[in-house]
Amino acid sequence: MREVCCGSELQARAAPRGEDMDRWKVTMLAGSALVAGVVLGASCASGGKANAPAPADDSPVEQTQPGEVRVVEVLEEAIRFEAAGTTVHGTLTRPRFSDDAVEPVPAVVLVAGSGPTDRNWESPVLPGENGSARLLARALGERGIAVLRYDKRATGQTDFPGDLRWEDYLAELEGALGVLSAHEAVDAGRLFVAGHSEGGAHALRALQQEVVSPAGVMLLATAGRTLSEVIAWQIEAQLVAAGIGESRVQAEVANLKRALASIASGQTVRASRVSMYPGVVRLVEALQAEDGRAFSQAILDWSPTRAAGEVKVPMLILNGRKDLQVDPGLDAQALAEAARSAGGDVELVLVDDADHVLKHQPTAREELSAQHGLLYNQAGRQLDPQVVEAIVDWVQRH
C-alpha cells in the first residue's frame, strides 16, 4: 500500500422547505442545521434545480512549442442516458488538444454524495453554486482527463422515479460508464470511477456486485464504517459539542442505535420515542419513509471495509484531514487497511487542508464547526490543489 500525507464536519446545511425536503437527511440540533449521515439515502420527491454547464470557451489557450501537444480548451457537452427506467442527465467535460490526432483520453465517472446533491455537488439546501464536482471536472479536463458527472435520481434534471433502491443507483453508474466507453474521445480501456461520500459506497457496491469493471476506483471522503455507526458517531459528537450532559448523550445514542438496528432489520419504529431532539426524530422518520425504506434497509448495516477487501482493481482512497463529516482514521485508513489486508493495490492520500468537499480549508481543525459546512459552495472557494495533483498522478499511473 502506498500512503501519502499531503500538505504542510459534519456537513451543515440550511433548513429545507416543504414536506419533501423535510424527509431528507437534514437535522436541526442545538440550533444548528446539521447533516446526520454521510451516506444516508433518505427519500425526496423533488430535486434541486440543475445548474447549466459552464461555458467552455473561457479556457486560456496555451502556447505550445513545435511538436508539443497540450490542452488548449476544455469542452463540455450535455449527456443523457437511461438507467432503471429513468432518463439520467449529466455533463461530459473533456480536453481538446493542440493536435487533433491525439489518442483518446482516460476518463472518470464522478458519483455524487447523499441527499439532493446534483452533478456539480450542489444542493438546494446548501447555499452557493460553486460545487466541487464542476471544479474538479474542469481541473482534470485541463490535465487531459475526461470527466462525466451526472444528476442521480431525484436531483437536478433527473426525475424522481417513485422510490429509491440501491440497485437503481448502481444502474446509473453502469450507464455512465457505458456512455464513456462508447465515446470516440475516450479510451475505453482507461475508465475510472470516483465516488464522493455516499458515492463511494455506490462505487464499492457496484464493484462488489460486479455491476461494473473499471480500470480503477477512487474513494473520495468515503465512510469506512457502516451507515449506522457513522450516524450514531455524528449525532454523539454534535450532542457533546452542544454541551449536553454525558448521561443524556449516552441515552440518546443508545436509543438511536437500537432504532437503526430495528430499521435495518425491516421493523418500523416510532420516531418520536427515539429522541427528545426534533432533528433526530426527523432523521429516523426519513430512514423509514416508504419510498426510501428499501434503500435504508440495504445500506444501514452494509460494511464498506468488507467491500473494499473484495475490490480487485487499483484503488485510491483520498480524504482531507479537515473533513468533519467522515474521519480520516476511522474511515479512510480503515478502508485502506481492509484493502491492503486482502492484497489489494491501494494508495491512501490524506490532504492536510482539504475539507469534506475537497476544498482548501485554511482554518485550524480545532476551530472548525458544523457551520463551516454552510460555506462549502461559497463563491471563490477552490479545490485543494493537492487533491487535484493526487488524482491526476494516480490516474496517469494507472
UniProtKB/TrEMBL annotation:
Keyword Hydrolase on entry: yes
Entry-linked InterPro entries: AB_hydrolase_Est10, AB_hydrolase_fold, Hydrolase_4
Domain Serine aminopeptidase S33 stretches: 136-358
Record SUPFAM superfamilies: alpha/beta-Hydrolases
Record-linked Pfam families: Hydrolase_4
UniProtKB keywords: Hydrolase
Superkingdom field: Bacteria
An annotated Gene Ontology molecular function: hydrolase activity
Residues annotated as signal peptide: none
Protein name as it appears in the record: Alpha/beta fold hydrolase
